[in-house]
Amino acid sequence: MRLLERMRKEWFMIGIVLAIAGAKLEPSIGVNGGPLMPEITVSYIAVATIFFNSGLSLNTEELTSALVHIKLHLFIQIFTLAFFPAAIWLLLQLLSITPINEWLLKGLQTVGCMPPPVSSAVILTKAVGGNEAAAIFNSAFGSFLGIVVTPLLLLLFLHSSSSVPFTSIFSQLFMTVVVPLIIGQIVRRYIKDWLERKKPPFGAVSSSVLLVIIYTTFCDTFSNPDIDLDRFSLILILFIICSIQLSFMLLTFIFSTRNNSGFTPADTVAVMFCSTHKSLTLGDTSLSPGPGRSHVPRSN
Predict the structure, then answer these.
(1) What is the C-alpha to C-alpha distance for residues 44 and 17, in angstroms, rounded to an integer?
(2) pLDDT tens per residue, the chain (300 residues)?
(3) From CA 115, how far away is CA 141, in angstroms rounded?
(4) In whole angstroms, what is the distance from residue 85 CA to residue 267 CA?
C-alpha cells in the first residue's frame, strides 16, 4: 500500500521516465509528420490547453496583481536574457580549450540566448505552489521579447546573423498563449461557482500535457541516432548543463530570498523556474554566418 501511495504521489516523475522510455522504444510515433503530429498537437493544441487551463484556474485579481509586479519581471527578464547568456559565454571561453565538440559548445550558447520557456515554467511553478500568474506573464512576455532580443544575442555572442520569422512566431505565441488565457478567464466568469465547488485537478491536467510535450521532444531526439559526436563530449556537456541548471537555480534562490528582495516565497518559485529554464520557441530561427565566420546550425 505504501508503494502505491508513493507512486500516486510521484506519478509525474514516473510519467517522465515512462515518456522517455516510450520515446526510445518507438520514436517514429512522436516525430514531426508522425501519427501524433506534434507540429500541430504540441505546438498549438498542447500549449493552448495549458494556458486555457491557467486562465480557467486563476482569479482575475491574481493576474492583475502579477502585471504590476515590475520588480519581479525585471529580475526574471534581465537574468534570463542578459546575465544567463553572458555567463554562458564566459564559461565557454574556458571550455573552448577542452576537447569538447565545438558544435555542442555553440549549441549551449545558442540555447543560453533563448527566452524563458512558454509552458514548462508555468506548470512547474503551479505544481509546487508558486506564483503561477507571474510565471504566465513572464513566460509570455519573455517569449515575445525573445523575438527581438535573441537574434541580437546570437549576433553578439556567436557572430552570426539570423533570420527570424517574426510574424509567424508572434502570431503563434498570440494564438497559443494570449488568446487561450483570455478565453479561460471569460469562461471562468460563467462557471466560477462550479469551479470552486468541484475543484477540478487543473495541476494534473497541465502536468499530463507536459508529459506529452516531453514524449514528443525525446521522440525527435531519438529519431536521430546517427549524430556524429563522441561519447565523452556528450557525457561532459550533460554534466555541464546539470551543473549550470543547479547553480543558477541556487543563485536565483539566494537573490530572491534576501530580506530586502521584496519577493514572497511564491515569487521565489516563479523566479527560479522562469529565470533558469530556456525555451526553444525560437529554435527554428535560421542562423547564417557573417563574412569569414563559421556556420551555426539550427537549434531544435
Answers:
(1) 24
(2) 677 888 888 898 899 999 999 998 989 999 888 899 988 998 889 989 999 999 998 888 888 888 888 999 999 999 999 999 999 999 999 998 888 888 888 889 989 998 888 788 888 898 888 999 999 999 889 988 888 898 899 889 988 766 667 788 888 889 999 999 999 999 999 998 998 888 888 888 888 998 998 899 889 888 876 666 677 888 888 899 999 999 999 999 999 999 888 899 999 999 999 999 887 654 443 344 433 333 333 333
(3) 9
(4) 23
The answer to whether the pTM exceeds 0.90 is: no
Which residue do the cell numbers 527578464 mark? 77
| Residue 224 in grid coordinates | 536521430
Take residue 29 and report the three cell numbers written for it. 510515433
In angstroms, the CA 109 to CA 91 distance is 10
